């Protein structure tokens, strides 16, 4: 919410700045990132915060992830609306837009690199419809819809008729955080995920451990964080990591942790005797420490525990 408020304040500042230069804005200025196809009309509809509703339909319409998105975007739209008065509208309302129907054609909630994120969105004839192949694509469409709602000078909410067809240009749209060199408070990570969702990113690359510290709480090797973290306050417990992953999934974001090996493992050795060995380069000691092959066999090919 704080990130959204900051975003709103920045948009307001630039809106006032551009207004001083003259009204050269268009309704596409509201959208980020810009969808593949946007066709605006001139008819304007009003929205009543007290009665407006998101309606799920289709096989995925009852998804808990979608319902959580409805609640989140209701707050985002009506608590922190875009303070921008787009040009191109007629100025008067053609009626009240009472709902947005979100039709999700699949109940499959698996999330991966090839998960489709295309959607279509239309606000026309007094009705609004969002169609998507899965709940994550629907979340992308909800973000677009939230950006389209603006306030009139009298404080009322409005939206201009529009037809949008969108699909991402890149399947992988990620951001990396490094919590080994610079520990991040868990709430900051959650806010970071919120900010990513506003920009339709879909992957958080979590560089969670490195030479400097080992803040990951391992169930199999608990001493690695007890001895390898900066201190006992700079550790990510298992339940917190699960919370981050779930928070991300509810925003259509995958979390990919990075555990560097065999190098970049100095912090691993503080809590695990005989774990590290001298690294060699060109047959000579390099001055770096590397992970012993024996532990890699213990860890196996699965996820760290």
Q: Characteristics of this structure?
A:
alpha/beta, disordered C terminus, elongated, 8-stranded mixed sheet, single chain, 3-stranded parallel sheet, 305 residues, 29% helix
Give me the strand/helix succession. Answer: HEEHEEEEHEEEHEHHEEEH
- Helix and strand content put the structural class at alpha/beta
Sketch the major β-sheet: 8 strands, mixed
Query: What is the CA–CA distance across the termini?
Result: 32 Å
- Please report the total strand number as a whole number: 13
Give the % helix.
Answer: 25-40%
Indicate the radius of gyration in whole angstroms.
24 Å
Flag low-confidence runs.
14-25, 298-303
- What is the approximate shape? elongated
Average pLDDT level: 85
Estimate the strand proportion: 25-35%
Number of helices: 7
Structure overview:
This protein has 305 residues and is of the alpha/beta class. It has seven helices and 13 strands. The chain has helices at 2-21, 64-79, 135-148, 186-198, 223-228, 238-249, 293-299; strands at residues 37-47, 53-57, 93-96, 99-104, 119-124, 127-132, 150-151, 157-166, 174-178, 203-209, 254-259, 276-281, 284-291. Strands 1, 2, 3, 4, 5, 6, 7 and 8 form an eight-stranded mixed β-sheet that branches. It has a three-stranded parallel β-sheet with strand order 9-10-11, with helices on one face. Helix 4 links the parallel strand 9 (174-178) and strand 10 (203-209). Helix 2 packs parallel to helix 3 (135-148) and helix 4 (186-198) packs parallel to helix 6. The model is unreliable at 14-25 and 298-303 (pLDDT under 50).
């Amino acid at each position: 919410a704080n990130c959204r408020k900051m975003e709103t304040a920045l948009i307001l500042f630039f809106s006032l700045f551009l207004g001083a230069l003259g009204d050269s804005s268009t309704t596409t200025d509201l959208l980020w990132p810009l969808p593949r196809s946007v066709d605006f009309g001139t008819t304007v509809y009003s929205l009543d915060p007290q009665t407006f509703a998101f309606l799920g339909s289709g096989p995925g319409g009852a998804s808990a992830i979608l319902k959580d998105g409805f609640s989140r975007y209701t707050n985002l739209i009506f608590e922190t609306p875009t303070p921008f008065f787009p040009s191109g509208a007629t100025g008067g309302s053609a009626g009240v837009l009472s709902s947005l129907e979100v039709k999700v054609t699949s109940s499959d909630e698996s999330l991966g690199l090839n998960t489709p994120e295309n959607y279509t969105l239309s606000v026309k004839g007094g009705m609004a419809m969002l169609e998507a192949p899965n709940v994550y694509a629907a979340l992308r469409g909800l973000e677009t819809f939230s950006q389209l709602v603006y306030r009139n000078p009298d404080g009322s909410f409005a939206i201009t008729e529009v037809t949008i067809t969108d699909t991402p240009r890149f399947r992988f749209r990620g951001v990396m955080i490094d919590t080994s060199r610079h520990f991040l408070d868990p709430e900051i990570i959650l806010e970071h995920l919120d900010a990513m969702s506003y920009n339709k990113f879909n992957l958080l690359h979590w560089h969670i451990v490195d030479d400097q510290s080992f803040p990951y709480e391992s169930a199999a090797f608990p001493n690695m964080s007890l001895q390898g973290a900066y201190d006992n306050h700079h550790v990510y417990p298992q339940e917190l990591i699960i919370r981050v992953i779930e928070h991300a999934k509810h925003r259509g974001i995958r979390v990919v942790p990075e555990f560097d090996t065999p190098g970049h493992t100095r912090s691993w050795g503080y809590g695990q005797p005989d774990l590290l060995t001298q690294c060699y380069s060109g047959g000579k000691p390099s001055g770096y420490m590397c992970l012993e092959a024996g532990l890699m066999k213990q860890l196996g090919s699965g996820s760290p525990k």
